[in-house]
Amino acid sequence: MAPPPPPTAAERGHEVRQRLLRAGAELITERGWSAVSTRAVAERAEVGQGLVHYHFASLGALLRQAALGAVEALLHELTVLLKAAATPQEALERILSTLDAYSGTDTTSLLFTETYLAATRDEELKSGLARLLTGAREELAGHLRVQRVRQPQETAAVLMAAVDGLMLHRPVSPSLSSAAVGPVLRRLLIGTNSGGETA
Amino acid sequence: MAPPPPPTAAERGHEVRQRLLRAGAELITERGWSAVSTRAVAERAEVGQGLVHYHFASLGALLRQAALGAVEALLHELTVLLKAAATPQEALERILSTLDAYSGTDTTSLLFTETYLAATRDEELKSGLARLLTGAREELAGHLRVQRVRQPQETAAVLMAAVDGLMLHRPVSPSLSSAAVGPVLRRLLIGTNSGGETA
DNA sequence: GTTCGCCTTGGTCAATTGCCCAAGGCGAAC
DNA sequence: GTTCGCCTTGGGCAATTGACCAAGGCGAAC
């Protein structure tokens, strides 16, 4: 086999930027948004602390980009999962299974909440997050609409909020397994247009 | 009228402690849990900075007590509101009206989320929060059970998580008014034991 | 008036913070 | 070999941090 060509300086730089973003996302969930320091990010990424401000305008810019990137990746993953579902019940099953996977102490579930809170105090972050969430919500709403769930827009919004809320409550209330809350959440999807109720 | 007696030193101390706690709760929502400093709390409470560590063992202890106190007060307020409701629908109406009142930029709604996140990293805070929430959830579940809602425990948990999630999403998605999500949330309460569905 | 207990102040310390910068490394182009 | 561009390092700075402390205020008890 031919040995891989040595990476150029620009390629190495790009790789370091990715490491910094990943380290930033990890530390946001571990310590909380406002407790992440430049030196901690650099150490986690195993680079000198000066690199943070070489690759990013500020620590805030790094955290913004790290958080939005992680949120976008997870939303994309969920959307793909959703597209393969035939019924709204099956879609819910898939969403709930991810709820079990993210136990509340993992890397990604707390990141959502941290990003929501940080968006309250950062206009740029708020608009970026709103863009991502609107896209995901419309994707989910379209899915629900095709399957004749009533008020698809509002149902999608409530469903996403409920899942986020459950993720938030889980570490404090470990009884919130998908098996426990699944039957209740399923009520959100009953009463389709093809069903009995018309009001 | 008799002039009020001058407060004793102990009474003044107690009043200062209350001011510090209120300042701490305010600053948690404004800046985020880990961005609250002793000097900021002291300045907001209009006392010298040394008083913080005179009245509290540490800044963390102050924030814990401030957050748990605020959460307890709000949960108590909601519980009282709930007791006056005759039907689960009316109870939901009352909960939703509080959702409109707390717009997401107010003092108390973000405090819940901040406390949840901080509890992830503070065992003492977690157990205190779990105690308060279990009490409130059982209160709500009992209310739902009397009114023949199925799976009252799980429904109460999902309802509380959904409300918290909606509060969290609201600043980013201003369309989440109670009028928009109310009809959807109401589905969580349909299908009582006295209703038609039996499965 | 003196003593006592509690509260209150502002100064101080070591540690940490975000950000900046001079200096150097290193492969590519020529 | 030299130059160039990009990446990388570690030190340094001013500001802020949590915590501690000596000193003083002040009403109550005696």
How would you describe what is shown here?
Chains A, B: Residues 37-56 bind DNA. Chains A, B: This is TetR/AcrR family transcriptional regulator. 2 copies of one chain form a homodimer. Chain A has 9 helices and no strands. In chain A, helix 1 packs across helix 4 (59-83), helix 1 (9-31) packs across helix 6 (109-120) and helix 7 (123-146) packs across helix 8 (152-169). The longest helix of chain A has 25 residues, at 59-83. Chain A is elongated, with a radius of gyration of 20 Å. Chain A is 70% helix and 0% strand. With 199 residues, the first copy, chain A, is an all-alpha fold. Chain A has a domain at 60-189: Orthogonal Bundle (Tetracycline Repressor, domain 2), CATH 1.10.357.10. Chains A and B meet through helix 6, helix 7, helix 8 and helix 9 of A and helix 6, helix 7, helix 8 and helix 9 of B. Chain A binds a DNA duplex (30 and 30 nucleotides) through helix 1 and helix 3.
Write the SSE topology.
Two copies of one chain form a homodimer.
Chain A: H1 9-31, H2 38-45, H3 50-55, H4 59-83, H5 88-101, H6 109-120, H7 123-146, H8 152-169, H9 178-186
The first copy, chain A, binds a DNA duplex (30 and 30 nucleotides) through α1 and α3.
